[in-house]
Design a protein that fits this description.
Blueprint lengths: L2 H4 L5 E5 L4 H16 L3 H14 L3 E3 L2 E2 L2 E4 L6 E11 L9 E10 L3 H16 L1 H9 L3 H15 L1
Parallel strand pairs: 1-5, 3-6, 4-6
Antiparallel strand pairs: 2-3, 5-6
Helix pairs in contact: 2-3
């Protein structure tokens, strides 16, 4: 599972301003709607339902909100680097500034899990996260998120 199969350059956001968890989930839902063609409110509700089960703030300033939608055709990602870290109810209680949203079709069991694992592995790399936090542009973020694939090829 390659990040470039999930994440397109137009789905990467740099320097996003958000006041809190709900606000950033709304912003990401709006952007995901433009990328997927799925209604923004459906995406937002799906993300909120998942957050009610437990936080997707995985620690070290990272969150991976995700959900499954009936009308989506494939896995879609949206990545955002926030201007300032926000409270996301993360498991380590630290604020979050790197968020990778993942949306999957309802029947995408194994693919959804493989994608979450791939995103998690990438964002556990402290060097990658440090570079992501230093990137100023969406293009720069996209290259950092997908460069490990090019190096592995």
């Amino acid at each position: 599972m390659e990040i470039s199969n999930i994440l397109k350059p137009e789905a990467v956001l740099a320097g996003v301003k958000a006041s809190g968890k709900k606000h950033i989930l709304q912003e990401l839902s709006r952007h995901a709607a433009s990328v997927t063609g799925i209604d923004e409110s459906r995406i937002f509700e799906t993300l909120l339902e998942r957050e009610r089960l437990g936080t997707t703030g995985v620690g070290n300033g990272i969150a991976i909100p995700h959900g499954k939608l009936k009308d989506i055709d494939r896995l879609h990602g949206v990545f955002a680097r926030l201007d300032k870290p926000i409270d996301f109810d993360a498991i380590d209680e630290h604020p979050v500034d790197l968020i990778f949203l993942l949306l999957a079709p309802e029947g995408a069991g194994a693919d959804h899990l493989k994608a979450l694992a791939r995103i998690s592995r990438l964002l556990r790399d402290e060097t990658v996260c440090k570079k992501l936090r230093g990137a100023d542009t969406a293009d720069g973020l996209y290259l950092l998120l997908t460069q490990s694939e090019a190096q592995a090829a």
